[in-house]
Structures are given as structure tokens and as C-alpha cells.
Amino acid sequence: KDNDIKLIDEFTGRIAEKRRWPDGMQSALESKEGLPIKREGQTLGSITLQHLMCLFKKVSGMTGTAVLAAQEFDQLYQLKTCVIPPRKPCIRIDKPDRVFSTKAEKNCAICNEISSIQLTGQPILVGTSNVRESEDLYALLVEKGIECYLLNAKNDEQEAQIIAQAGALGAVTICTNLAGRGTDILLGEKDTASNLQVKKAGGLHIIGTSRFESRRIDDQLRGRAARQGDPGSSQYFVSLEDKLFNHLGADGLLSGKSDTGELVSSARSAKKLPTASGY
């Protein structure tokens, strides 16, 4: 981007400015791509994030997913976690994960699900794990004639414009973690009538294309829906070829497949996923 190789933060989905790969790897890529080779940086000192935070006299924070890391906050920083009840109760419907044998079968099911939901007028936000996955899914949807918007680190300058329409009636937005945290998606247009239409359709629906190793990131994506008492729903689609299953193993999960490749009896995998995600 901008005649330069930029790294993308895996957890935020945003470009990590001034971050470079070490040991000549960045320079090798710059040479391969025919770009000017920049001078290698030199590390004069380093410190872990945990030790850095302990240098401050006072440490505090606020997040919607702190409970999952309460034990870590207590052990590392001697900080207690306090839960503040929401002003309005959350009425989001979190549907059970759908598990497939392969990524191809999973992507096909996601496209069919989006096509079906879009007919109801319910806006959809699809969260992917990286830029390539977001572009591949976007291409599949366009091929099927489904109008959608794409938001990732390659077009982050359009973030405000894309997010502004993500809650519109029938809108489909494909994104990375760029829109998975700290983003408030308003339902409908600015007028009240459009807002009521979207609410009647079910509010914003979240589709996750894979589970992350951190459950907090999963919950942050879900949290884009049903904010401030609005209706909303979420569902994750996973496959046994996903990165997370490389750590879990897929033994015993392949029995009971439907014709579409979906695991009919996926209760065992559903139990394993949240445990593996941890915090």
C-alpha cells in the first residue's frame, strides 16, 4: 500500500504503522516487490507489556469483555474486575455454531445464509479473520450476484463511509477485525422510519467465518449487534480446516455429515470451541 509493505495487526485488523519484520525479512520482501529497501531498525531496549504497565502508579481500564480476563488482571496487575450492568438489557440472539468439514463447504453455506437473510431486509455484518479471507468471500458473493461492501486494511480510508451504511436495510458488509471492536453501527438511515424497519427485520445480524483463539475477540464481534437495547443476532460458521482446529484436532467430529458437509451432530465441537478460545 502506498508503494510500501505494511504489516497488519492480527487482532485489530489495522495497519501496524512503523512495525517491520526483523532479521532482514522485511528487506527481502521489499527487494522481491521491487520497492526501495529501507534501513533496518535497531532494537535498543525491550520490555514486556505486563512489566511496562506495572511502571505506572495507577492503572485502570474499561472494556465490554473484561470478565473473561478477570483472573489475568488480578494475577498480573492486582486489579479487580467490576461488572457494570447495561442501561438496557441485551436481547441479542446468539445462535449455535454451524460446523462443516471443509472451508469450501463452509463458505458455500455462508453465501446461502446471507442470500436468505438479505431477502428479509436484515442487515448483515460478516467478520473474517484476515484480508485474504475477506476478499475471497467478497468475490464469492459478487459472483452469486449479492451486492455487498468490503472493509479491510486495504481500504481503511473508507471505514467511516462503509460503517455508516452497514446498518441499512438489506446491507451486507464483509470486514476484518477492523470493524470487530469499538465500532457502533447504527440501524437504518438517519430517519426514524428506516430505523424501525431494520428493527422489525431483526436488527443487525453478525456472521463470524471462524473462531479466534481468543474468545474475547469472538465476543467483540458479537457485540456489534444488539447495542443499546436494539434487536440483533449472531452465529459463527466454522470448519475442521480452520486454524483453531489445527490446535484442537478433529478426531471424532467427522461422523454424521449432511449432504452439504455440515456436521449433523456438532455438540461435541461446540463444547470444545469456547474452551479452546479461552481469553
Short description, anyone?
The protein is 33% helix and 10% strand. The chain contains 10 helices and 7 strands.
What this model shows, in words?
The protein is α/β, with parallel strands linked by helices. The protein has 3 domains: 1-46, SecA, preprotein cross-linking domain (Pre-protein croslinking domain of SecA, Alpha-Beta Complex), CATH 3.90.1440; 48-84, no CATH class; 93-277, Rossmann fold. Helices cover 33% and strands 10% of the residues. The protein has 10 helices and 7 strands. It has helices at residues 25-32, 49-53, 70-77, 103-118, 131-143, 159-165, 192-201, 215-222, 243-248, 267-277; strands at 93-94, 98-100, 124-127, 149-151, 172-175, 204-208, 232-239. Strands 1, 2, 3, 4, 5, 6 and 7 form a 7-stranded parallel β-sheet that branches. Helix 6 (159-165) links the parallel strand 4 (149-151) and strand 5 (172-175). The protein is globular. The protein starts with 24 loop residues before the first helix and ends with a helix.
Which key phrases capture this entry?
single chain, 279 residues, alpha/beta, Pre-protein croslinking domain of SecA, Rossmann fold, 3 domains, seven-stranded parallel β-sheet, 7 strands, globular
Please describe the biggest sheet, giving its number of strands, its sense, and whether it closes into a barrel: 7 strands, parallel
Per CATH, the superfamily of the largest domain is: P-loop containing nucleotide triphosphate hydrolases
How many domain regions? Answer: 3
Strand fraction equals 5-15%
The percentage helix is: 25-40%
Shape: globular
What value does the average pLDDT take? 84
Number of strands: 7
Instruction: Outline the low-pLDDT stretches.
Output: 265-269
- The number of helices is 10
CATH architecture of the largest domain: 3-Layer(aba) Sandwich
Looking at the structure, the CATH topology of the largest domain is: Rossmann fold
CATH class of the largest domain reads Alpha Beta
Distance between the termini: 32 Å
